[in-house]
Design a protein that fits this description.
It is built from no helices and 9 strands. It is mainly β.
Length: 171
């Protein structure tokens, strides 16, 4: 079990929104290390994994920003399993993740007559999810030669859930 807590801060945002608290928790179980695991099993390793955490995006460059700009926030859950077979000659790692994005940064058009035409503001929510499967095989292992084959399958999707229009005073 692993637990973390951190406070990230930047000088690029106003004082009230300059820092944010992020946390995470993860756990994995190496089932093959348990006393009930059979000695000469076809499976040489089994490790289910799960994690949840919050984090943010990179802070923006030097844009004209909304005075209420906050860090983007992301909350990610990830589950997976690692398997090894035939004395670790074949390994498989499978993962699924889902991320909720809030306070997305969006460059919004602002009315003409100002010194700039866009402003960076928090303006929406999004969801992303996907899976990945990695399969590795060692068909040849000798003193002079080893050959490793890796195949990777993955899929991901992203969806904008909500976009806001800029409201209020412009800087």
């Amino acid at each position: 079990l692993y637990i973390n807590l951190r406070n990230d801060a930047t000088s690029r945002l106003v004082d009230d929104n300059r820092s944010a608290l992020y946390y995470g928790v993860s756990a994995a179980w190496q089932v093959h290390n348990e006393s009930f695991w059979p000695e000469n099993s076809f499976l040489s390793a089994l490790k289910p994994r799960m994690s949840f955490g919050t984090h943010s995006s990179e802070y923006p460059g030097f844009f004209l920003t909304d005075v209420n700009l906050k860090p983007e926030r992301k909350a990610t859950i990830n589950g997976g399993v690692d398997l090894a077979m035939l004395a670790n000659r074949i390994t498989l790692s499978a993962d699924y993740h889902q991320t909720s994005h809030t306070d997305l940064w969006i460059l919004m058009d602002i009315p003409s007559g100002t010194t700039t035409s866009t402003i960076l503001t928090n303006g929406g929510k999004a969801e992303s999810s996907g899976w990945e499967i990695a399969l590795h095989a060692l068909p040849i292992i000798s003193q002079n030669l080893s050959w490793r084959i890796t195949t990777l399958f993955q899929s991901s999707s992203n969806e904008i859930i909500e976009l806001h229009r800029l409201s209020g005073d412009y800087p």
